[in-house]
Design goal:
Length: 406
């Protein structure tokens, strides 16, 4: 048989994050613990479908007038309006003045990609600055779309906190007009966010340098338990009348991981500009995937427009956030009680789904080999994958790693 025309294709490496789960699934040990992928788990270690999501889905199933027709290129209109209100605030002047265009996209990744493609075609600066470190997919999303990716300092390993002076210096040296990616809240992978005062200093610098902010909001309500608090950074930048982009995902805060529900909002200076921007977003989306899927967006819209369901969602959302905060405290207390060397206070100071432990790649490899604990090689662990019963095993693994591996 003749060789395949694809015989020269080389084997690609596993995705650094998703590959953790592949390795975990192959492990036969009963002790195995997956702290790699960012998906919420219950105290029993099970995936969770929110009750409010089940109610919304049931109402959709029961509505016999619903059709499965194509959505417009921009997606479900109700979903787009409600998503903009959720992140910008119901009383946002930008919304009232019709200066916002919102399009439904394929979760957060798709929203980022559509925004990146739009900027590559229509924005004069082709450079985007992303935090160091950041979510592994950011570099690929922006570079494949045609933007030049540079980094700004964000995390300080010595304090396991924000490298604020480095951030300010690097953005101060960025060329005028450059795009800057910010994590709206619950920075991934570090769990380190600027304080409100620091956000204000960042905003002043961004506006004085005419930089264009692009927010990635993957965890609204999931970080602190408050939808408003977690949208603080985005609303701060919108309140000054300037322009920005915001990508939203409903994977974490509604548990709609596999539905791929997200939105891209672009806040403009004037309504006529927003209209023209939307017309060009359609030209980005049409050859990419034509139009987005209907089911997940309908779930979100059903919940957001029904006051009773919306209030139920907020209660369930806070319960998820509170469980993660509790896991942080329990892990910190257990490490302290064990006498594990080092200052572990960063575990409770960081916020959101992930903790940047400070463990190095050798220590991570040791924990995987000897204790069957799986995480990304940079030492990031998903607090949502942890429960009370697994904490003693994790503490044993961390203690052994920091006391025996350099």
């Amino acid at each position: 048989m003749a060789d395949s025309v694809f015989a020269g294709v080389v084997q690609a490496p596993e995705d650094a994050i998703l590959g953790v789960t592949v390795s975990y699934n192959k492990d036969q040990s009963p002790l195995k613990l997956n702290l790699g992928v960012g998906a919420y788990r219950t105290e029993e270690g099970k995936p969770l479908v929110l009750n409010v999501v089940r109610k919304a889905e049931q109402s959709l199933v029961n509505d016999e007038s619903r059709k499965k027709e194509y959505l417009p290129i921009t997606g479900l209109a109700d979903f787009n309006k409600l998503s903009a209100k959720l992140i910008l605030g119901a009383d946002s002047p930008a919304i009232q003045e019709n200066r916002v265009t919102t399009v439904q996209c394929l979760s957060g990744t798709g929203s980022l990609r559509v925004g990146a493609e739009f900027l590559a075609r229509h924005y004069h600066q082709k450079t985007i600055y992303i935090p160091q470190p950041t979510w592994g997919n950011h570099i690929k999303v922006f570079s494949i779309a045609g933007l030049s990716v540079k980094t700004y300092r964000y995390y300080d390993p010595s304090t396991r906190g924000l490298h604020f002076s480095g951030l300010i210096e690097d953005l101060g040296n960025a060329p005028s007009g450059a795009v800057v990616l910010f994590h709206a809240c619950a920075h991934n992978p570090t769990g380190v966010d600027p304080s409100p005062d620091q956000w204000e200093q960042i905003r002043q610098l961004v506006r004085s340098k005419k930089l264009l902010p692009f927010f990635d909001s993957a965890y609204q309500g999931f970080a602190s338990g408050s939808l408003d608090a977690d949208a603080y950074s985005v609303r701060l930048f919108v309140a000054d009348g300037g322009e920005c982009l915001a990508a939203q995902s409903y994977a974490k805060n509604m548990g709609l991981y596999g539905e791929r529900v997200g939105a891209l909002s672009i806040v403009c200076k004037a309504a006529d500009v927003a209209g023209r921007v939307e017309s060009q977003l359609k030209l980005v989306i049409r050859p990419m995937y034509s139009n987005p899927p209907i089911h997940g967006a309908s779930i979100v819209a059903t919940i957001l427009k029904d006051s009773k369901l919306y209030e139920e969602w907020k209660v369930e959302l806070k319960a998820m956030a509170d469980r993660i905060i509790s896991m942080r405290q329990q892990l910190f207390d257990a490490l302290k009680a064990k006498g594990t060397p080092g200052d572990w206070s960063h575990i409770v100071k960081q916020i959101g789904m992930f903790t940047f432990t400070g463990l190095n790649s050798n220590q991570v490899a040791f924990m995987t080999k000897e204790y069957h604990v799986y995480m990304t090689s940079d030492g990031r662990i998903s607090m949502a994958g942890l429960n009370k019963g697994k904490i003693p095993h994790l503490v044993e693994a961390i203690h052994a790693a920091v006391t025996t591996v350099v």
